[in-house]
Amino acid sequence: xxxxxxxxxxxxxxxxxxxxxxxxxxxxxxxxxxxxxxxxxxxxxxxxxxxxxxxxxxxxxxxxxxxxxxxxxxxxxxxxxxxxxxxxxxxxxxxxxxxxxxxxxxxxxxxxxxxxxxxxxxxxxxxxxxxxxxxxxxxxxxxxxxxxxxxxxxxxxxxxxxxxxxxxxxxxxxxxxxxxxxxxxxxxxxxxxxxxxxxxxxxxxxxxxxxxxxxxxxxxxxxxxxxxxxxxxxxxxxxxxxxxxxxxxxxxxxxxxxxxxxxxxxxxxxxxxxxxxxxxxxxxxxxxxxxxxxxxxxxxxxxxxxxxxxxxxxxxxxxxxxxxxxxxxxxxxxxxxxxxxxxxxxxxxxxxxxxxxxxxxxxxxxxxxxxxxxxxxxxxxxxxxxxxxxxxxxxxxxxxxxxxxxxxxxxxxxxxxxxxxxxxxxxxxx
Length: 430
Ligand code: UGA
Fold this sequence. Notes:
Layout: E1 9-12, H1 16-27, E2 32-35, H2 39-46, H3 57-63, E3 68-71, H4 74-80, E4 83-86, H5 101-109, E5 117-120, H6 128-135, E6 140-143, H7 153-158, E7 162-166, H8 172-182, E8 188-192, H9 194-225, H10 229-237, H11 258-271, H12 277-301, E9 308-312, H13 327-337, E10 341-345, H14 350-354, E11 361-362, H15 366-370, E12 375-378, H16 390-396, E13 401-404, H17 411-416, E14 420-422
Parallel strand pairs: 1-2, 1-4, 2-3, 4-5, 5-6, 7-8, 9-10, 9-12, 10-11, 12-13, 13-14
Bound molecules: uridine-5'-diphosphate-glucuronic acid.
Residues 123, 146-150, 205, 208, 212, 246-248, 250, 253-255, 257-258, 316-317 line the site of uridine-5'-diphosphate-glucuronic acid.
């Protein structure tokens, strides 16, 4: 592909979404200029160093280095690209609303010059597009929410299920230019208005989180009635109205998106005068689910005072070093609160985890983490945990007890290795 023929793409905010967006548009042949306020990050990226763990991303950045420029200079960005993807963070405030201060600061830097198109990728409450358009009349505004998942972000970007593009009628040309950028990727195009696009994003995340809390409660009932949640989810998922995805029970959802967006949608509804009853339950079930492991351990070990517990995995999910809202944070705090000593191992998240988990001893391998422990808890389903030599681990532990918080391991293998194994809503292992 000849990059001269492709429209330059600007990216504002080089976090997870921004960096993936920059790398993928460069891979599609566009010259990309990406701006972040952090000089250190920009310098590192210009040297070809990548700061986050995301499969395939480093390779893509390296391969397309000549099409990628990173800068802190907003004027340089505005001079180089008309189409500007805003990918800044919208973290939760103390009250749980989305903090739009970074979005607002970008908007302040933009001029409604009739030339630039602001393409909002950051997750924002419905109505944000309308208020930015009121603030900067004349600015072309397109809402284009992101649906990529950490760990498979590059693949998700390149193979979208759908691309949602929201704009008002006067910005129809801008919407079409954005659609043209995504057309080579295939996938359904949803052309709609800005508020609906914003609601599609929040509702999708809230619905997926609802499915997870639902299956987690089903798992808890399965434990009471002696059913196996894996079988239940399999049978449910075959109904094409239900489908098989996002029905994996565990010890709660985490990450930078689901907890934040469920709360943000609940508050958005509340602020608009509607009490979103269901989402309260989704959040509450998720919090309780993170703590169930503590009672499972108590059932086997009695008091946890002085007991040594190994956490296998710390990141909120595998293939990422992201610790935001990870279940390991709540779990380790609860275990330490009960008087247990906590040791932990994660293949990539330990550097990020260290300052968040004071008092938790980090180990270099899963094998070392399990040594001399009264129990192991699988918190994140990293594939390498399937390769653990379980008979050997049983010998090294004080007590061969394993709570599998993600139903990831084979109960048969653990059983033959001498372990007492317990998953979430699984039969045949209690
Ligand atoms: C999520 C959405 O899946 C993306 O579509 C969206 O773009 C993104 O949020 C965002 O808004 O930026 P992500 O947070 O990266 O992506 O991760 P997921 O794979 O969705 O997992 C979220 C959490 O749910 C993890 O803690 C995971 O362990 C948990 N989960 C997921 C379950 O407990 N059960 C499942 O069946 C699936």
